[in-house]
Structure formats: structure tokens, C-alpha cells
Amino acid sequence: MHETRERVLSAIADGPVSGPDLAAQLGVSRAAVWKHVEALRERGFTITSGDEGYALDGVPEFGGSAVAYGLDAPFEIEYHDAVPSTNARARELADEGASDVVVLADEQTGGRGRLDRTWHSPSGGIWLSVLFRPDVPMAATPVFTLAAAVAVARAAREAGVEAVIKWPNDVLVEVDGEERKLVGILTEMEGEADRVSWVVVGIGINANVDPAALPSDAGATSLSAVKGAPVDRRRFTQRVLETFDTVGADPEAVLDEWREYASTLGRRVRIDTPGGDITGEAVDIEYPGSLVVDTGEERVTVAAGDCD
Ligand code: BTN
Predict the structure, then answer these.
(1) How many C-beta atoms lie closer than 10 Å to residue 111's C-beta?
(2) Looking at the structure, do residues 20 and 127 belong to the same domain, yes or no?
(3) Is 118 in the pocket of ligand 1 (CB under 6 A)?
């Protein structure tokens, strides 16, 4: 967010501050203060102006300025009410040389899932892509997908929804004895074997979405459907980005927290891999994101595949 506007919000968050005091604090003219206040009102912030001055009375439910306000992570937010795909937009930004940007949307009109599937993204969700440039080899990138799953599962649990993670990248919740999908993650990257140029981690969260708006065969649900009330999308998005930023920088922490939330570990699994099916008990996760499966005869480390 514009730095002066952020300072205006912090200054008036705890009660009224007069125009002249605000101008002095910020080192700008009273006319400039008024312009910033108007710009913030246009972005949905409720700012009252009484005898004692300006006071912050409400923050928008969602949007770029809303998420940027109070966000404790070093990302710039590019917000769209609607966009074809936040991943596609983040890739464009990557081609322009950008980094540490989050593309965020209320609705996607051409959301993409894994294996070229369509990802339904009606208004009310949290559809976002984080673009960053880590100094790691290509082979290390699966850990960022795990970090995203951990970040969303932690935020869901903080919001009262007992989310679990299914390897490699689904965040699910149990409804009437069946696991239903809350979140999908699509990680894309470019670079050379020994060094990544950029990574885009796309996270699709069925937040305040009516499950009836999702395809009936998708086995999906939403945070609001599970809770019976809408979630605070602003706070939820902030928590996801903050956790992704801190945990993502520490692979051991990612694996530890992933194990805590995993529904896959301890279960019998069948994994469809390019080399054929692997069946056995999922016993652990290994850096950078491989599942360790005990087939009864040996322990196999599976780097990628679809897991039943
Ligand atoms: C999956 O198939 O499970 C992955 C779905 C990933 C969807 C997200 S929504 C935000 C970002 N933009 C996209 O077009 N896809 C990802």
C-alpha cells in the first residue's frame, strides 16, 4: 500500500486525530491528508471526521488495500475483482522481472488446476498467487508447495476448521465422514536445474463460496459451509501469507508442521506415478516433499504422483 496512506491508517486506528496533527505527524499538508483520506475511503475504509478529527471506523472485508493493511509479510499485493487466472497474471509479472508480489482476486474466470484441469473460482473465494525468486535449485521447490499447504491448514485451524493435508498438495476437511477439498495448490516455476529463476505458488481457497457453485463431482466444500458463517477473508489471507513467508524459509519447520496436519501418514495409499502404481502404507514425508511408502517389501520414496 501507498506508504503515507498506511501511516494515516496507523495514526487514526486508535482514535481520532485532528487534520493539523495528522499533517504534522506525516510531514505533509492538510490538503494532502484530506486527499489520502478520500483515497482510503474510495478503497472501502470507513473513516469518520468529527470535531476531534479523523478516526478509522472500519476496514474493508477484502481487497488489495485491506489485505496490505496490517500485513506482516514483505509482499506487494496486486488485487483484481476478477481476473482470468492469478497464476497466469503472476507469470506475466515474473516475465517483467517482478518478485515478492501476491496477485489476489475475488473471482477467477479461467482458474487453472493441476494436470490442466479447470479450477472453479467463483466470487467469494481467496484466489492468490505468490511470486518470488528463491535462491535454490529446481529440485528444492516442492517444499514451497508443502509450505503453502501448511500455511492454509494452520489458518483454517485458527479459524475453527480442522483442515488436514493430503499429499502432495490438497487441504481437506472431513464432512459427514468424507474428506472434502477446501484448497488446491498449483506451483509453477522457471529456471535451470541448479537455480530457480522464479516460483509462482498458486493457492485457491474455497472461502466464502457456496459449494453449490462448485462442480458437483469435485468433492469440494468451503470454509463458510463448514463453519456455517463467512470467514474474515482479509485476516485469513494475511495469516496464509505470513505463515508462508516465515515457515517457507525453514524447510525443517515445514516438514514438522506438515506431519502434524497430514491425513496421509499412517494410511494405506495407492499412488499413480509415471512409472506405475505404488501401493503401501504412507509412513513419512522427506525433504523436499517426497512421500515415503512402505510397500511391505521395501520403503519407496515417491517424489510425485496422484494419491488415492
Ligand atoms: C489443484 O488442481 O488442486 C490446484 C488448483 C490451484 C488453483 C489456484 S487458484 C489461484 C491460482 N490461480 C490459478 O489459476 N490456479 C491457482
Answers:
(1) 25
(2) no
(3) no
ipTM > 0.95 for the complex:
yes
Which ligand 1 atom is at minimum distance from the Cα of 205? 9
* Residue 9 DSSP code: H
What's the rounded Cα separation, in Å, for the pair 69 and 226?
Answer: 27
186 lies in which domain range?
A: 64-261
CATH number at 18 reads: 1.10.10.10
For residue 71, the SS3 value is coil
Q: Cell numbers of 192, please? A: 535451470
pLDDT tens digit sequence for 124-155: 999 999 999 999 999 999 999 999 999 999 99
Strands 195-205 and 299-302, by their bridges, are: unpaired
Tens of pLDDT, residues 49-79: 999 999 999 999 999 999 999 999 999 999 9
Side-chain-facing half-sphere of 267: CA atoms under 13 Å: 14
Ligand 1 atom nearest to 125, measured from its CA = 9
17 lies in the same domain as 150: no
Q: Which of 44, 32, 33 is nearest to 11 (CA)?
A: 33
